[in-house]
Structure formats: structure tokens, C-alpha cells
Amino acid sequence: MTSTVIDQKVTRYSVRHALCMARAAELAYKDEPAIDKAAREWGFERVRHHHTTFRPPFPLEDTQAYTLGGRDMIVTAFRGTEPANMRDWLSDTTTPPWPGPGGKGYIHYGFAEALESVWPQVHAAVHEFRDNGQTVWFTGHSLGGALAMLAGARLHFEEPYLTATGVYTFGQPRTCDRLLTREFDAAFTERMYRFVNNNDVVPQLPPEPAFHHVSALRYIDSTGKIHSTMPVITGLFDHAKGYTADLLAPTSDGVRDHFMGAYITALEKNQN
Questions:
Q1: Could you tell me where the DSSP H helices lie in the chain?
Q2: In this structure, what DSSP letter does residue 235 have?
């Protein structure tokens, strides 16, 4: 993973900051010593690790995240999981929904329980580190993206005086019903950025109409270019182009496009 120093003075969207948040999301897959080392290199003096282990029959093994505290910025990154470990339970429509943050709509039960398991730790770390009016950021890839979005929602709707400065997600699945997406979109205008890489399979789950995506899409096309919208007609052609890029295994494109490395590569290209 390429090392970088995060500009802790940032308060607005930029591709460079998106790349920093992507690297922070990628770091969530590493072990604690690697996270501690990167934190120092990135200019953060404090680190808290969050980890909860589940027992069967819950479909996930654990939830992991970390929080970095700096002089001007706090970043919490949630770890994701492999598509094969998510597909069955994300497609299960028999699981009852979980009430959304602050009573706003409903969210997927699996995401809710995963976030609930570490939220007290995350919440405590954010408040412990926020001793200088620091900005607050959430990020994550895959499952971690869903948890990052929901963490931002919990902080805002349950503590309205503290709204995250930004939420950046990569390959995030659908997380909630239409009511919460509407409330979230209104609260997080120019704060939420949901990156989707071409044919990434995970953002297509769980199924509609029960679950929906929040707005603020940043679509990465088959050439690696970032768009703020995805036009219907050109988007269909671009999806097809991605599927045919690997003629020997076209269905693998949806999994290949989900890899965190693919998102980072695209963001690096867009720096130029």
C-alpha cells in the first residue's frame, strides 16, 4: 500500500482526498501493527482498534474498524468482506429490517447488528479524540462502506450537533429503505460520496425495492474515469464494455471490479 500524508485541513471533496480515504479503507484489512505504522506516517498521533467477534448463526465472523485521531481530523475506517461471504445473506429478504438511526426508516438487519457491535467503541473514540474541534470522517469498502454510511447516519440523527464532515464509501451495498435514503441525502449533501467501479457486483445487493442506495454517486467507468452521474444509455454500453473486457470469464468482471485495489488504481489515474 502506497504511503501518503493525509491533509488534515481538508473539508471539501477532491479526488486526492477520495484517494486518501480509499487508502484508509484499504488499511482496515491490515493487522494492528500495520495500522499503527500507517497512522504515524499519515500524521495521526492516536489510534483505537475496534473488534467484535460474532457467534453462529450470524452470517459474519466479526466486525473490525479503527479510528485515527489527529490535531485537525478524525478518521474511522470499517473493514469489508469478500463478496462470496456477503451474497447469500444480502439476498435474503426474509430477515426483518432494523429501525434506522433516530427512528428514520429501516436498515438491513445484518448491517445494523454489525455496526451495533462496535458502535460504542467507535462513538467513544470519536468523542475522546475530538478535543480540538476536529473534522470527522467515515470510510469503508464493501461491507465497510455500508457501516461507514450508517455510522454517519447514527452520529447525525442521534447527535445532531455533531455531523460527520464527510463519508466516503467504495463498493458499498444498498443499506436502507427509501425513507432513510431521503433523510440521509438531505443531511449529507456534499458530505457523502459513494464510489462504484463499473460492474462491481456488491452495489447491486441487497435487492430492490426493499433496499435503496443513498445518492452522491461517483461512478468509475470501464476506462477508469470518474463521473458524478451515470447516464442510463451510456451507462448500459459502459457496463457491457466492462463485461466483454475479459472474454474468457466475463462474469468475473463483477468481482474483479469490487477489489479495493481496483478503486485505488482508478483514483490514482484521476490524479493526473
A1: 15-27, 32-42, 83-90, 109-129, 143-158, 178-187, 232-243, 253-256, 260-269
A2: H
Neighbours of 249 (CB within 10 A): 9
Query: 228-241 as b/e, with b when 16 or more CB fall inside 10 Å?
Result: eebeeeeeeebbee
Tens-place pLDDT, residues 99-140: 999 999 999 988 998 999 999 999 999 999 999 999 999 999
Dig out the grid coordinates for 212 from the structure. Answer: 435503496
What does the pLDDT look like over 131-188, one tens digit per residue? 999 999 999 999 999 999 999 999 999 987 899 999 999 999 999 999 999 999 999 9
Block residue for cell numbers 445484518: 110
Report CA 268 to chain centroid distance, whole Å: 18
Cis peptide before 231 (omega within 30 of 0): no
Cα separation, 240 vs 81, in Å, equals: 26
pTM: 0.90
